[in-house]
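Input.
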Amino acid sequence: MPARDSIHQAVKEAVIKDGWEVTDDPYVISYGDRFLFVDLAASGFIGVRQGNKQVAIEIKQFRGQSQVVDLEQAIGQYSLYRILLNQIDPERELFLAISEATYGDIFDEPIGKLAIAEIPLKLVIVNLSTKEITQWIPSNPIKQ
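Output.
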């Protein structure tokens, strides 16, 4: 199992504060002879008509020497997880959790905005100081 990002616990607490129940830490994807590990899985009740919503959340810190290299790695991992989840757990939505600082450093720039729009990339933006989710991109799946 890979090492956790240093922001893992803060993101987990933010997810719980936002009304989610963490069901897996980590969430294991088994495909063929391979096992991959998404950082968290959570569920939340969003109303009688929509019922229980399930998400998988990959946490990334972006602390390398290059924000673009970190973005490339995160997009690759996110894309692979999304492909696999579409096969084994298609009802579960995948999100990439990042800090507010990371969002401002790369995702609020043209290259990040393009990645969000074209992939499409779903994000959970977390204030690490308050351990609160400040934004779901494209939208908050609980409050829809």
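The first helix runs from residue 8 to 17.
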